[in-house]
Design goal:
InterPro entries: ABC_perm_TupB-like, MetI-like, MetI-like_sf. The protein has about 230 residues and is an all-alpha fold. It has ten helices and no strands.
Length: about 230
């Protein structure tokens, strides 16, 4: 127990002193996850809205697949991206494997279904509520998309935050496609696994504290957005 107390004290010191190794890992983690969530949001928000508004053959199957992909195992996503980006894969010539770019692709694959599926649900509910008003304004379905997305913005902020929480806590996929290379692709989750196995508890604990703090901030932001939405709706 005293050894663990010492490791915890050292971990706090690493955080307060802005240890370069710890700071580099944290910054890379944020860069990868924020980039992935931004790309997933840019793709997933209009995709979810389009699925909510249009009816076409196979739509039901697509919705079921999208909902199923919300629970896609990270290691499966990592394997799929690995096969895609490996030398023998169709995108192997890009040389993205074992780079932060590959990690972004893997996280987009995990986050995109969450954002798209939850966006579809929210936009579909709003469309049912305001369908007659929107039709009276003469809006086409394509022109309804930005209107409904804007009206659902508070709820969609929670959706994006949920996606960021999924991305920032991911281990398996980023380890497969990133390789956990020191100074290149080592992020908080993979570094915690490695440093714990090496017995470097102070750094592992320090990264764990930062990651918990980040998760707490995301949940606090989601709660604040939810409360704001509830007050607006009365």
């Amino acid at each position: 127990m005293p050894q663990h107390d010492s490791a915890f004290a050292t971990a706090l010191a690493l955080i307060l002193d802005l240890d370069p190794a710890l700071l580099g890992i944290v910054m890379l983690s944020l860069k990868v996850s924020l980039t992935a969530v931004l790309i997933a949001a840019l793709l997933g928000l209009p995709l979810g809205a389009a699925l909510a508004l249009w009816r076409f053959p196979g739509r039901g199957v697509l919705v079921v697949v999208l909902n199923a992909l919300m629970g896609l195992p990270p290691v499966v996503a990592g394997l799929a991206v690995y096969l895609l980006l490996s030398r023998a894969g169709p995108l192997g010539e890009l040389g993205l494997l074992f780079t932060p770019g590959a990690m972004v692709v893997a996280q987009v694959l995990l986050v995109l279904p969450i954002i798209a599926a939850l966006t579809r649900q929210q936009v579909e509910e709003l469309h049912l509520e305001y369908r007659e008003q929107l039709r009276s304004l003469g809006l086409s379905r394509a022109r309804m998309i930005p209107t409904l997305l804007w009206d659902a913005r508070l709820g969609l902020m929670m959706v994006v935050l949920a996606g960021f929480g999924r991305a920032s806590a991911e281990v398996g996929a980023v380890m497969i496609v990133g390789g956990n290379i020191d100074g290149v692709t080592r992020v908080m989750t993979t570094a915690i696994v490695l440093e714990t196995s090496k017995g470097n508890l102070p750094l592992a604990l320090g990264l764990g504290i930062v990651l918990l703090g980040l998760v707490a901030l995301v949940n606090a932001a989601a709660h604040l957005v939810g409360e704001t939405a509830r007050r607006r709706l009365g």
